[in-house]
Specification:
183 residues, mainly alpha, Arp2/3 complex 21 kDa subunit ARPC3, 7 helices, 68% helix, globular
Length: 183
């Protein structure tokens, strides 16, 4: 079982890295729209809270070592000084809470539990981290930082829907692959 968990953790870290190869859509204030937060949501929902968080910790570690796996080919310690640092460092927490919430709601229909979990982890928790990091790096106030980040919420809501659709499709063919549904 340990080998399987290690493979799953590496697989989801790789999935988020691969999503970084989708070209980001740049914004003037330095925070691009990327597909990587979709992978963070999926990691939490599909692997559960602990393995999802470990997958994201693995990716944070590898990127911090210099692997250019973030959107736009970024990597190294320099990402810790950029305006996206809060989002980047928030990935493990976001995956953890997405998985924890979905797992705690497993008595609900899969789509509902997944939507609430992905929204809570992938938007609420991730934005709390992202806004705090943006505020710290830019020196902006809380309100200005929050309003700056608000433009990303519609795109992330689409990612919640995609996460639900993927979880539903996987669950139909391989129920054991959705750890947050395990009893």
């Amino acid at each position: 079982m340990k080998d399987r968990s290690l493979v799953q953790i590496a697989l989801y870290a790789s999935l988020v890295a691969a999503l970084g190869f989708i070209p980001p859509i740049p914004f003037a204030f330095g925070v691009p729209i990327t597909a990587q937060s979709l992978g963070v949501m999926l990691a939490g929902i599909m692997l559960g809270p602990w393995r999802g968080a470990l997958a994201m910790l693995l990716l944070v570690f590898v990127v911090s070592l210099g692997a250019p796996l973030l959107a736009g080919g970024r990597g190294g310690l320099g990402v810790l000084t950029g305006p996206t640092v809060g989002f980047f460092l928030g990935w493990p927490l976001a995956a953890f809470f997405a998985g924890l919430i979905a797992q705690s709601l497993r008595r609900l229909p899969l789509m509902a539990a997944t939507a609430i979990g992905a929204f809570t982890g992938g938007i609420v928790v991730l934005y709390l981290c992202g806004i705090a990091g943006f505020k710290l790096v830019t020196g902006n106030g809380w309100i200005e930082s929050t309003l700056t980040m608000a433009v990303f919420i519609p795109g992330d809501l689409v990612k919640v829907v995609i996460t639900c659709m993927v979880a539903q499709a996987v669950y139909k063919g391989m129920p054991q692959a959705v750890a947050t549904r395990a009893t």
